[in-house]
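Usage

Read records sequentially. Each one opens with the input sequence:
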Amino acid sequence: MAWAETFHCDVCNKEKSEEAEDWWLAWTETLSPAEGEREQPVVKVTPWNGFLAHSADVQHLCGARCVHTIMDRWMLAK
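and closes with the structure output:
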């Protein structure tokens, strides 16, 4: 029996196909600008990587429009 793995966009729920080339991954981290200063939240976006896609805190995004949507949502929440 073959293992089938599917990913869906966390914004629009589109399913990722094998041919899809414009998929992205996004996640948030905190960054400390200098010792003693308050940590700053950061959003990181990178092109699709099969290994990183399995991380529990990574969002799967099907293209630029959904990346922009994630950024908008993140900015409004801050």
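Summary fields computed downstream for this record:
- Strands lie at 24-31, 40-47, 59-61.
- The first helix runs from residue 64 to 77.
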